[in-house]
Amino acid sequence: MGKALVLRGGALGDFVLTLPTIRLMAEGLPKAEVEVMGYAPMIQLAELAGLAVATKRIEHVGLASFFVPGAELDPEWCAYFESFDVIVSYLSDPHGIFKGNLIRAGVGETDYFPAIAQVSADATHGHAVEQLARPLESIGLFLDDPVPSLNLSGGGMRSGVAIHPGSGSASKNWSRASWKELALELAGNLPAGEEVAVVSGEAEEEWIDEWLADLRGDGVNVASWRMESLTDLAAKLAGVRAFVGHDTGTSHLAAAAGAPTVALFAPTDPAVWRPMGDHVTALRAEDGDWSRLSVADVLAAARERMG
């Protein structure tokens, strides 16, 4: 086996959940050199984990024609795709346009493996990691280790806690008042000088500064970690005593970085979407009702993870 390519779109959590599949290919295909194509912020994680020999951005303008029926294809990209012995694609291609253009580019039909484009929310199909890896069984690869890992270490003593009180979906969010109460309690459980780091991104831009100011006004030693570089954020998360977040890509990133993690769920099913690993606790609000998830229960889980 020579070269293998994994095509992966989607958001941060989707990419992290695919890391065990990429590792399975890197370790299971004899002498394979695995490359990963995806969105720029995420593909760096495959390199950080030591799973990809190279990465490419899927946003490249030369790729656009591969999603158009009968389009004139860029010769350089044709040569690139033709150079692989195995291509596994998680891209949505319901009408087979992308596959057809790959074959026109010279990729053999037996070398292309369209994987699932969307994980089933039905827990009877297994955890998302298992669903994503299952298509590789057709080429004799079976997943033994379902835990995504970036192979980071905390670099010594862990310090502080990190929380991510938002997400891109309002239905996935515990109340900000509950998060504030939790942050105050966590701060009181930390040794002097250690911080409560608050992770935030675009989804929290409208309210996070005011929320942080309120915490500081209550005397909490707060650090603000903005999601500008995923690799830098992963390195920071690897060193915390514990991380607490919603069902988001950030929680999956924290767990993959090795942070003791508490992931909070309400409408979504942790049997499908929880971060994987023995260092993870998943809490689900009863009946999917956030008001029935108490600060006391979340604090107890966080304390247990803090050790």
Automatic annotation (TrEMBL):
One GO BP annotation of this record: lipopolysaccharide core region biosynthetic process
Family annotation (SUPFAM superfamilies): UDP-Glycosyltransferase/glycogen phosphorylase (SSF53756)
Annotated GO CC locations: cytosol
Entries under Pfam families matching the protein: Glyco_transf_9
InterPro entries given in the database record: Glyco_trans_9, LPS_LOS_Heptosyltrfase
Annotated keywords: Glycosyltransferase, Transferase
PANTHER family assigned to the protein according to its UniProt record, in alphabetical order: TETRAACYLDISACCHARIDE 4'-KINASE-RELATED
Protein name: Glycosyltransferase family 9 protein
Organism of this sequence: Sulfuriroseicoccus oceanibius
Taxonomy of the source species: Bacteria, Pseudomonadati, Verrucomicrobiota, Verrucomicrobiia, Verrucomicrobiales
